[in-house]
Amino acid sequence: MTAVLQARGLGKRYGRRWALRDCTIDIPAGHVVGLVGPNGAGKTTLLKLAGGQLAPTSGSVAVLGGPAGGPAQLAKVGFVAQDTPVYAGLSVADHLRLGARLNRGWDAALARNRIGQLGLDLSHRAGNLSGGQRAQLALTLGLAKRPELLILDEPVASLDPLARREFLQGLMEAVAEHELSVVLSSHLVADLERTCDYLIVLVDSRVRVAGQIENLLATHHRLTGPRRDPGRLPADQHVVSARHTDRQSTFVVRTEAPIHDPAWTVSGLSLEDLVLAYMEKPAAARPLLEVQQ
Ligand SMILES: Nc1ncnc2c1ncn2[C@@H]1O[C@H](COP(=O)(O)OP(=O)(O)OP(=O)(O)O)[C@@H](O)[C@H]1O
């Protein structure tokens, strides 16, 4: 199956600073991918590289089987930028007309129906809409393009919890209805938990982990027990994070194998635990693991 997003040694540098480096990922079609990481981690940079709005400094990025930013790719990729920008002086109807003019595959019925379901007045100026309504308008424009891949950069960051939920529900309905892959970035793991089935964690401009959430949760465990040096863990237990008190150690490890050591209390992780473990400073005794699935 063609990867919706394939990066090979992808990097982007601004001046001397790398915003993204050594990014190698393969995301199969049909997923809703959550891209998570702290401020400045490189999320927007990765999304803009995928959307063809930035050129790589190193490596390559392909979307839907062709180089990102090529004419065929631009026609098949929808991009909803950070803060879901719309034109404040234009009406909702103007936005739909603009969308129709700019996109060959424009689905006018989808756009009209969605605006109707949202209860938006076509004559309203976008500048007078609430944050949630503006986000919904931007999502409608993205969906009516009928993209194969929809990229959303922190689409719900500025919305209240109800508007956030409605936005993500609308997105999930669209995913269920149309054959659509989605990559969205967010700081809020709870939003990703409800929406995504694939996760990428970016920290300090590097991909720390990427994979299907179900597999990631099945292969990551928290071990708690008497204090132990991480170097004394079996080689197949890759240490993601380690914390110690005088007497006790707590590790988050990734392993495919069962854990039999009776010294450990073994528990599973929530998605938030997993993300936070990868955001901590890497455990010193082992090289950092990058999971690609
Ligand atoms: N046009 C630019 N010129 C110089 N530096 C930039 C530019 N765009 C981004 N950067 C830097 O690159 C790094 C990654 O930025 P990016 O916006 O990709 O991070 P992010 O994870 O999306 O952050 P946030 O969550 O705050 O939106 C940051 O250090 C940022 O300051």
Give a short synopsis of this structure.
This protein is α/β, with parallel strands linked by helices and 293 residues long. The chain has nine helices and 14 strands.
Structural overview:
The chain has 293 residues and is an alpha/beta fold. It has 2 domains: 3-204, 3-Layer(aba) Sandwich (Rossmann fold), CATH 3.40.50; 220-279. The protein contains 9 helices and 14 strands. The chain has a 6-stranded mixed sheet with strand order 6-7-8-3-9-10, sandwiched between helices. A hairpin with a 2-residue loop joins strand 4 and strand 5 (66-67). Helix 4 (108-118) packs antiparallel against helix 5 (131-144) and helix 5 (131-144) packs parallel to helix 6 (161-177). It is elongated, with a radius of gyration of 21 Å. The model is unreliable at 283-293 (pLDDT under 50). Residues 14, 19, 37, 39-45 line the site of adenosine-5'-triphosphate.
Features:
disordered C terminus; Rossmann fold; elongated; ABC transporter ATP-binding protein; 31% helix; nucleotide-binding; 293 residues; ABC_Transporter_VariousFunc; four-stranded antiparallel sheet; 14 strands; binds adenosine-5'-triphosphate; 9 helices
